[in-house]
Sequence to fold (156 residues):
Amino acid sequence: MADNIQALYDLLQQVRPLHRRVVRSVGDHLDGTGIGVGERAVLALLVESGPLSVPAIGRALFLPRQNIQKWVDGLRVADLVERRANPAHRRSYLIAATEEGRGLFAGIRKREDAAIAGLAARLSSSEVEAARAVLAACLEHFSPFEDDPDHPRPLA
Fold:
């Protein structure tokens, strides 16, 4: 039991540097696309999930609505997303990826998939599944500590 606790602690200590490196890698693969990492996250969510309101995007990405609005505005200027009427809420539009946005994201994913192909070749499908299960368990275990993205708790 104590060995497992230490192993999980050590694993969790790798999350922050891993996240920083992945963000930098994602940023490198955006060169020439005209969008940044935040806009890429919004575009990915809209391509993969369909139209969402700005508050729903914020909840899905665990980020404040103000950040999401800024990125949506940039994506709209670039004609990568569009506003649509929201039948559930008259004043809150749905944001949807345009055909151009879907095409750009497909190209980005091709670059990213090529970049992680070497890593994928090093790992068996059972190793990847085990890692996915551990990360899912960690997310579930620590879910009570999730903030409302628009009303974060102060750090101690």
Notes: DSSP finds seven helices and three strands in the chain. The beta strands are 52-53, 81-84, 94-97. The longest helix spans residues 99-122.
